[in-house]
What does this fold into?
Amino acid sequence: MEEVMEALLNGDRETQIRAATDLGRLSGRQRHKLAERGMVPPLLSMLHSQDFEAVEAALFALLRLASGSERNKVRIAKAGAIPTMLGLLQCQSEALMDLAMAALLILSSCTANKLVIAASGAIQILVEMLNGANTGGDNNGISSMSMQAKLDAISTLQNLSTCHQIIPLVVSSGAVFSLLQLLGCGGGGGGDKSSELVQKAISLLEMMASWSEVAVEEVAGTGGAIQALVETVEEGSPQCQEHAVGILLLICQSCREKYRGLILREGIMPGLLQMSVHGTWRAKEMAQDLLLLLREYPNYGSRKKQLKNEQLEQIMKEIDAEGEEVAGTALRMVEEMLAKLSA
It folds into this structure.
């Protein structure tokens, strides 16, 4: 352990790289002691090197120091690592970008670091990187992001957003549109609505919408957003469906008269009814709440459409009575409901 510290402080290039690499072989307790004795600053100095191997070894060492230790996460941030990490996010090496993104993600999981990271300009950089990745081109010279870097960038924004006073900064950075692009809005080319990337994006989107009326308005006002959310209700994984219906419910609650018709015209009802039977516990609750709002759509005021609403309500009662035991029966009820409503 003493040799590792001495090598980092006074060794030449090869010795420092070897010492940083050897850090991974030490126990967590030994790494913690080295951090207490001042191991972080020499590792940060290595990050400023133009030597790929030195930077890579230092990043791995910092990741190991931070992993599982809240104190070390704070030490690393206080030593000035965050601006350096942000600089590495804009380098031309995908490998170094991935490591720097992983390090920023770990640092952002520490409550004491969240406001520091937010104040560093990290949010805007992460959103701009996602925008560049979504459009398929470089953004200010930033090389294209790997899938893992995209996932880590969204997870970092989500970590920061657990501090609710940071959410307005995330919203104002343009994150809503960036996340919607990942769902397929605005030419984002979103494909698989059950992918891990979509799941992370829509989870963050719902968190933002839950705490920010501005975020709700931005989602609702983005062309193709409601359609993409309805498609996610139909095609997404159970977790993606849950977040999608949560966002649609928030949109409808924000201004029912304005958005109910838009949601209905996207064909939400079949997916919503199926979710009210087969979704997660939370998704079922929200699907039923959204169904109640949609059934109050004012254009249904005529006697004929009022009867259709009553028929829909009866079908919902029958589905509730069936529970989840007879899936085929529930699906037939959905088909019957659609036939009656289109008659």
In short: Residues 211 and 217 are 12 Å apart (CA to CA). The radius of gyration is 25 Å. The chain has 22 helices and no strands.
